[in-house]
Amino acid sequence: MERKSALLLELLKCWTKHNAQTAFRKLVHQGMRISFSCFVLLLWASAVASASSSKLPDGTEFPSWEKNPQFSKTYYVDGQAKNADDKGPGSKERPFRTIDAAAHVLQPGERVVIAEGVYRESIHPARGGTSPDAMISYEAAPGAKVVVKGAAVVKDWKPSVGWNFGVDPETHQPVRAWELRLDPGLFPNGYNPFEVDNVLGNREWLRYAQDNMATYFRRRGLVFVDGKPLEPVELSSELAGPSTRSMNYFTDIHWKPLFKEFSPETGKVWIETNGMTLHIRLANDDDPAKHVIEITTQEQVFSPAERYQSYIRVKGITFQYAGNGFPVPQRGMVSTNRGNHFIFEDNTFEWANSVGLDIGNEDWGASRPPQPVGFDVIRGNTFRYCGIEGLGGTGGPQSTLVEKNLFEWIGWQDAAMMSESGATKMHTARNLLFRNNVVRHIRHANGIWLDIGNANDRITGNVFADIPGDVNPHAIHIEGSDTLNEIDNNIFDHLTGGILIRDTNNVIIAYNLFLDCAQVCVDTVSGINGPRAVGGHTNDVHNLMVHDNVFYKMGRSAIEFTNARNEADGNLYPASAGPGGGGGASYLRVKFPEPPEWHNLASWREEHGWDMNGSLATISAVMDPDKLELTLSMKGDVKRSPVYKGIDTDFFGKTVSGDRFPGPFSEPGTEAVTRSIDPR
Q1: Phi, psi at residue 45, to the nearest 5°?
Q2: Degrees to nearest 5, angle at CA 627 with 626 and 631
């Protein structure tokens, strides 16, 4: 059997290099009996099996380690059960009351099943598993809504005294505010987020961030009224309304709401200097006693008690409310604490002041861990309302799988100048597979930012939509990397910028669909205020392979190369691009040497020999980022071309053989057809 399998692999190579008849003759020569028709079917099946959306840029398959989990023992948690007891056995009949109690008991190969309820605690696993066959698992009971909150309900608000809150500009009456003096017992770990600024670590980068300084020195604590956040203000008088003063002495920056776009206005909160007294003014001047008010009391709600743990699974849990600080370090509401081989599946991460989930080595100043970090699986989760990052990973996370997640409304802290904001922000990620995710409604942040030293990463089959802004507003940003990376089969819509390649060489950008980029769809930049050394040499952004993409609406241009040491071919451009129409307008650019070159498709070919297999077409497209529906048609002489760089599946995972159309769909169609594009 082994001989037959090896021979079939050899024959498959013969099939691809020559033809079926040659391969069949070789089979007969080896004395194997099979009909030609069966042989062709067998080879076709083998070819389909080899097609994959999990191939990494170097042609290898993503190294999966998961196994179907089996557990030797199950514990139970039920915070609402009358007989629940953290000192009990944790059985179905006598469950633990808290999840953290189970976290101190679980051994490799065991799991805890959690009953429905709200758990106000911080979970610190005492140990991890030892292998894929002996994991430790934290999981919600089937169908149960399990919510873990890093917040406490607070009551007994009293009318505020001793402060001038000003006069309401509409009613001309003195502002009515309410105060609460915080009990130190609310913070069992001694961490009070209302005492601590957002930024406490290395502040050297602040010299670049001369925008809204209040963002960086705002307190970390958040206040929620009936599940909706109160807007923080810097001065007591701002409870009356927006101040007329500028919040920055260098530029004219005034207070503006953080949450108004995606959350109803519920009021404002002002924090006294010592962080021990809160003053709130609710919408409609309501009495706090009529509402449920929660304040964040924890920095993190799930993090192993000791660093470097492994083989932990977390499944089906909603994590909410954390008063954590801005990276670095990346200290997420939920954290692997520099561990490896974690699985996060079907969870929700909501309302982290900074980072929702962190993996990797936490800080670029951290020492080398005893085992490589990474090998994590992040699948089917929702990341929502995180202030800086939904998912963060620094310190070289390896072989990380991020698939079928939803990232939305990330970056509301308005700290893009800090250069750490993104729905996902990774540093030195290697063998990352970012696949079939939805990244939408991102504010003051990139969609995914791979920062410095990234290698063999693939971003494929994702939807990026509604990412506006002026500072770091790109759907995909790859920076300071030299080893091959790949971006393919993605859909981009309603963006300031599509893809930014900064100080990075060797990137495949293929079969993507750019529906609407206000500035540049594929942009390149070399150097920050001058040449920038990466890995001991200057990366001038060369060997970018931009192939078989579809460009519909673009602001300034479709492609801007830093230099001519790149290539473009098989791309499809709109026949009516720019004011000149008929492809006559300039929408392709080479920046250096000065003066920059502007091209249309004809001069692009003539000057550089690029896009000799490119096309012009009449394109019509409308996308709904919330319903995730796309109506698309392309009419014209659209050229097919051979599959490029082994990318043999389309956006839907359908196998593509032979020649294929540009863009993420193997059969885009000439008539307008509405289809679901939810890749999850």
Answers
A1: -65, -40
A2: 115
Q: Tell me if 346 sits within 8 A of 380, measured CB to CB.
A: yes
Q: What is the pLDDT of residues 26-55, one digit of tens each?
A: 444 444 445 444 444 444 444 444 578 999
Report how far residue 114's alpha carbon sits from residue 105's, in angstroms, rounded to the nearest whole number.
14
> What distance in Å separates the CA atoms of residue 207 and residue 680, rounded to the nearest whole number?
41
427 within 8 A of 419, measured Cβ to Cβ: no
Extended strands (E) in 346-418: 348-352, 355-360, 377-379, 382-384, 389-394, 401-403, 406-408
DSSP reduced 3-state for 5: helix
The conformation of residue 572, written as its DSSP 8-state character, comes to E
Are residues 319 and 333 in contact, defined by beta-carbon separation less than 8 angstroms? yes
Cα gap 664→648, rounded to integer Å: 11
Question: Distances from the Cα of 68 to the Cαs of 54, 114, 132, 401, 569, in angstroms?
Answer: 19, 20, 9, 17, 43
| Pairwise CA distance, residues 347 & 344, whole Å | 7
Dist. CA 362–CA 364, nearest whole Å: 7
- Residue by residue, DSSP assigns 592-619 as -SSSPEEE-HHHHHHHH-TTTT-EEEEE
My answer on whether omega of the bond before 108 falls inside 30° of 0, hence cis, is no
| CB-CB contact of 612 with 605 (8 Å) | yes
| Residue 121 in tokens | 């605690």
What does the alpha-carbon distance between residue 146 and residue 154 come to, in Å, rounded to a whole number?
21
Quick: pLDDT tens for 223-266. Answer: 999 999 999 998 899 999 876 666 666 666 777 899 999 999 99
Nearest partner of 482 among 565, 541, 400, judged by Cα: 541
Confidence of residue 7 (pLDDT cuts 50, 70, 90): very low
Q: What is the spatial distance between Cα 439 and Cα 457, in angstroms, rounded to a whole number? A: 18
* Residue in the block written with tokens 């009351």: 97
Maximum distance among all alpha carbons in the chain?
A: 98
Handedness of CA 430, 435, 437, 442 (dihedral sign): positive
SS3 637: coil
Tokens 């193997």 sit at which residue?
Answer: 666
Q: Are 515 and 555 in contact (CB under 8 A)?
A: no
Residue pair 451/668 in contact by the 8 Å Cβ criterion: no
Q: Which H/E stretch holds residue 43? A: helix 36-50
User: Which conformational region is residue 267 in: left (phi greater than 0), alpha (psi within -120 to 50 degrees), or beta?
Assistant: left
pLDDT tens for each residue of 357-394: 999 999 988 999 999 999 999 999 999 999 999 999 99
Contact (CB, 8 A) for 151 and 229? no
Task: Identify which of 402, 439, 446 has the alpha carbon closest to the alpha carbon of residue 421.
Answer: 446
